[in-house]
Structure formats: C-alpha cells, structure tokens
Amino acid sequence: MSAARADRSGLVADVVVRRGSFELAATLAVAPGEVLAVLGANGAGKSTLLHAIAGLVPIDRGCIECDGVPWDDAAGVYRLPETRSVGYVFQSTRLFPHLSALDNVAFGLRARGVRTAAARERAHAELEVLDAGGFAHLRPRDLSGGQAQRVALVRTLVTEPAVALLDEPFTAIDAAARPEVRGRILARLAELGAMTLLVTHDVGEAESVTGRAIELAAGQMVRGGVPLPPR
Fold first, then answer.
1. What are phi and psi of 76, to 5 degrees?
2. DSSP label at 186?
3. How far apart are the first and last CA of the chain?
4. What pTM, to 2 d.p., does this model score?
5. pLDDT averaged over consecutive 10-residue blocks of the chain (231 residues)?
6. Residue 108 contacts residue 153 (beta carbons within 8 Å)
7. 111 within 8 A of 133, measured Cβ to Cβ
8. What are residue 214's DSSP bridge partners?
C-alpha cells in the first residue's frame, strides 16, 4: 500500500464540453483524500463530466489539472486516458468476459508491468477487502450483479489511482451490505489520498460520505462544491 504524498495539490477542472446539441459547463476542485458528490437527474451531464476527466471525451474550453500537471487545456495539451492516473467504475461493470474475477482485478497491474503471480496475489488481497475472495475464480457470466459490482470496485482500487471516478457504483449491491461496502471502498481511497468523484442520485448517500457536492441540471451547475444543506 502506498502512502499519499504530502505535496499533492488535488484535482481542478473548469470545463465546457459539447456533444451534439448538449453542452456541459462545470467547475470543481477536489483535494487529495476528499470525496466530492456529483448530483443531478438523468441527462444532467454527470457521466459526461467524468468522461472528460478520464480523457474519454475532449473538452472544448477550459482545463483539467491533477496535482499541478495539465491533463487537458483545450489548447494543445491532451494526455491520453491511459496516461492519466484514473480509476473508473462505470454504471455497467465492463468486466472482461473471458477472464475470472481475479484476473479482471489483476489486469490493470499486469498492464503496468507487474508479473502475473504478483498481480494475482495483490488482486486476491484486495478482493478480500470486500469479502469477494470466495468468487475470485468465477467469470463475469457466473457472478451476480452485486458480485460483479464488487469486482469492478476492487479493479479500481488495486491500481491505486490518483483520481477515482465512481458512477453510481453501489446500486447493484444488496441494500443491507451497501453501507459497509461503500465505507470500505471510500476508506481505502482516502488512505491512498485519491481525489474521488461519486456520482449518485441519492442525496442521503451523498450526505453519508461527504459534506460537499456539485449538482448539474441540463449541463449547467446549480450547486457548485458547497456544503450540502441540512434536510
């Protein structure tokens, strides 16, 4: 496990993204170890914002910067997604169907040059964090929705990303187990010093994990990183 560096400045984004007739305009700042909730109805632009930070869609104006390093400034600087230290949990788990749960988790480590045996050992240890070691040998088709979601979450954790983008990552997990799973994941990301964006429709969930949120409506910010008001 790596300790968070003390010299990190966090994630800053001030972006305009156009996709056809839709335009997203958003500004945010997330400190190392912090969780920022991203709220909004379907179609508000939440996933588009995450895609821009991950480098999956280009920005049309503005900038994205992580720990003082420009990732995208719409004026010549553009870092490819694979060069950004980002862990992304999509709404659909996007597990590789031909790999076991264990090898899905180990894939990111192997892509970074870690030997197979060491990558699998690390992957199994991280699966145990979510009590998921018992189905490490199963392929995605044999996993329940909640099990697949746990594997996708662990796959993000194991690479120790600087930025974690979580797009409604707990919805498939049984409601009784959800608070504990969420707590373990976010505690691990805080330990790593990750800047975490948590997309959720649930204001109660946002309140339980962070005091700060942005809210989008039709691509525009209606709440800008301010503390969540008491209900």
1. 125, -25
2. H
3. 38
4. 0.91
5. 62 94 95 94 94 95 95 88 93 91 94 93 92 92 93 92 94 90 92 94 84 91 67 48
6. no
7. no
8. 38, 224
